[in-house]
Amino acid sequence: MARRGSYAKGIAKREEILRAALAVVAREGYHGASVKELADEVGLSQAGLLHYFDSKDELFVEILRTRDEVDMAGHSGAVDAATLEEMRDGYLDIVRHNARVPGLVELFTRLAADAANPEHPSRAFFAERSAGLRERWAGTIADAQGEGMIRDDIDPMLAARLLQAVSDGAQMQLLVEPELDMVVLIETLFDLMRAPDRR
């Protein structure tokens, strides 16, 4: 019984660490969120903090996973939308939110680049995340094509991949051009995909 209680406490502490780390990265940015800064935030030593994770890299991947969970809870339409309009509106809400937290955008883009290394912990996270998003978006896009809302000469999976590519690319551009309006880019892509009589 004590082991189960201890395990539950460990899970709860890990969750506390990730939520606090998410706030630190959003506030301080990727470079300001050192392991020491994160440990101080939750009242642990650096070694104590890393006790809950296999490595610093895994810690940052889990921060990103937590970011996705929080975003999806607040903007579920971006992923699990029943209609194209719900998907568009939910997705644009997330894009607007991302523009307000450049530290998390920087974490995302850095870990996305690290995912090129098959051994990096971010590789599996990004592969799973990307495939899941594209599959769900493609389903919504295919349904919208059936309703005549989206051009029928574009493959739904290709459209989903384009949406992801524009979004991920916009986040990279935002880091260099903070004045970039990512929402306009995504809205324009949705408009280009619409059937001519639905524009």
Report on the architecture of this protein:
This protein is mostly helical. The protein has one domain: Tetracycline Repressor, domain 2 (Orthogonal Bundle), CATH 1.10.357.10. The protein is 77% helix and 0% strand. Helix 1 (2-32) packs across helix 2 and helix 6 runs antiparallel to helix 10. It starts with a helix and ends in a 6-residue tail after the last helix. 25% of the residues are buried.
Average pLDDT confidence is: 88
Number of helices: 10
Instruction: Specify the oligomeric state.
Output: single chain
CA-CA gap between termini? 62 Å
Number of domains: 1
Rg, rounded, reads 19 Å
Q: Which regions contain 5 or more consecutive residues with pLDDT less than 50?
A: none
Structural class computed from helices and strand pairing: mainly alpha
Largest sheet: number of strands, sense, barrel closure: none
CATH architecture: Orthogonal Bundle
CATH superfamily: Tetracycline Repressor, domain 2
What's the CATH topology label? Tetracycline Repressor, domain 2
Number of strands: 0
Order of helices and strands: HHHHHHHHHH
Question: How much strand content do the residues show?
Answer: under 5%
Structural shape: elongated
Helix share, percent = over 70%
CATH secondary-structure class:
Mainly Alpha
